[in-house]
Amino acid sequence: MATNAKETNTILFVWEGLDKSGKRVKGESSGRSEALIKTQLRQQGIKPIKVKKKPKSLLRAPSKKITPKDIAVFSRQLATMMTAGVPLVQAFDIVGRGHENPSMQKLILTIKEDIESGSTLTEALRKHPLYFDELFCNLVHAGEQAGVLEVLLDKIATYKEKIESLKGKVKKALFYPAAVVVVACIVTAILLIFVVPQFEELFKGFGADLPAFTQLVINLSRFMQESWYYLLGGIAASGYAFFYFKKRSKSFNRLLDRLFLKIPIIGPQILHKSAIARFARTLSTMSAAGVPLVEALTSVAGASGNAVYADAILEMREQVATGQQLQMAMRQTGLFPHMVIQMVAIGEESGAIDSMLAKVADFYEEEVDNAVDALSSLMEPAIMAFLGVVVGGLVIAMYLPIFKLGSVV
């Protein structure tokens, strides 16, 4: 709650002043008070003349939400600035003021103010857990402690980019068939509610019994016309209940994750492999940063993206904490392929577990990419066939009585 209040108290000011040469300058700055803005201007060698809150425009577009992609881009920008030797506060100022998303700009400038007031980067980031998770903060903390913050920021940026790319591939694999099913349902509903009744009026003048398939479609059309609002209400209520429990119930999410992993093709070829890739990428990044294995596994569990794998990783952490090797703990879960376990075993023996895990992550990210492409190629004819059966079946049902009448004549 403190974070939200703090972000709310950051105000955008417009100011005018005189620079060191006496030239009149003006601009915009974010801060918690007018006095703070004046202090910042004086530190920059500007004598403030007028500072006031920027009026809100009624025509201004609403602020966009901060997405994981925004955080990934910010990580890369900050890493690039730090590697180039730009001081941390100045880097935040450049990145923040240049950001297109007002919400992201506000977040970055708020963190900059915390750093200016004496907080470490880790402390400033921990005040915004909604955007910077434990893994992000732990890596930044490791970089600050070792004096290699720019190196760790570069690793974070690479990690975020690869994870977001992997998420995008998985979403693509799941969204395509779901979108087609939704479109098919909408088209079917339109045909049943608006088109089939026109044919029903025509069939009334035939004076003969309709084919069973045609009668079935007509009965379904009548049900849709009389009870569409009940059906729509049921779908809306089911959707609300689904998202309500998904946000609030851990047991419901575990059940969903187990079911998703069992979906033919998508489960074993995409979701399993993407979870292994995220596990390997996250643990590799944290190991390279020098984070202790037990502590790293806690963050890895949270970043796994699947409750089944998260539970397994937490069990592995408990076993590793008692002195067991990581490879043995992985073997006991039954979730990791033999190749992954062997790569980890080699890494443990050679003391290069981070590089071995990075190779595993590269391999499985490529596997997911290939699986998504293969699934897309496979789904296109399957979806066309599905739409053909649904829409074509309705059309055939409507024309069967006409064909029957023609054969009699």
Please describe what this structure looks like.
This protein is mainly alpha-helical. The protein has helices at residues 2-9, 34-43, 68-83, 88-97, 102-116, 121-126, 134-146, 149-203, 212-248, 250-261, 266-288, 293-302, 307-321, 326-333, 338-350, 353-408, and strands at residues 11-18, 24-31, 47-53. The chain contains 16 helices and 3 strands. The protein has a 3-stranded antiparallel sheet. β1 and β2 (24-31) form a beta hairpin. The longest helix has 56 residues, at 353-408.
Question: Could you list some keywords that capture this structure?
Answer:
409 residues; mainly alpha; three-stranded antiparallel β-sheet
Topology (elements, then pairings):
Layout: H1 2-9, E1 11-18, E2 24-31, H2 34-43, E3 47-53, H3 68-83, H4 88-97, H5 102-116, H6 121-126, H7 134-146, H8 149-203, H9 212-248, H10 250-261, H11 266-288, H12 293-302, H13 307-321, H14 326-333, H15 338-350, H16 353-408
Helix pairs in contact: 3-4, 3-8, 4-5, 7-8, 8-9, 8-11, 8-16, 9-16, 11-12, 11-16, 12-13, 13-14, 14-15, 15-16
